[in-house]
Amino acid sequence: MTAAAPIKILTAAAEKRALLCAYGEMEVQAAVDGLQxxxxxxxxLDELGQDRVQDVIAAAFIWAHEHAEAEADFAxxxxxxxxxxxRWEAEDAKRPPVEEASEPTCRTPAATVDAFWIVVDKDDPDxxxxxxxxxxxxAEHLHxxxxxxxxxxxxx
Length: 156
Prior knowledge:
This protein is mainly α and 156 residues long.
């Protein structure tokens, strides 16, 4: 009997159990006992010897331990988010305060002013009231124009 297939199975099983041990999911003693039991049942102890079987198992545990340590170096720091926010807030504190935005000014278009004078020339106060109600943002400016024209006409 050749040990090629059983030794591959032992190697794969040893790597799996070693990773479980490295991440705290399995006790080392239980993992090694199960692997030793498999090696005995598969005839690997008689064919390869106890030392060779232990070398295969130990190699898997060494690899898993190194793998877990390397991965731990890149592990997520639960405080990382708070550190970033604190850094952003510190940078924001250095900046001058933002000026409050003023209300955008409404500029009455020339076409609306022209339309206003057309409505005024109709000499219909009800129609003028309706038209101004449809132009609430322009009403104040149009009233100023109206007063200026009236004061100029009265002075002439």
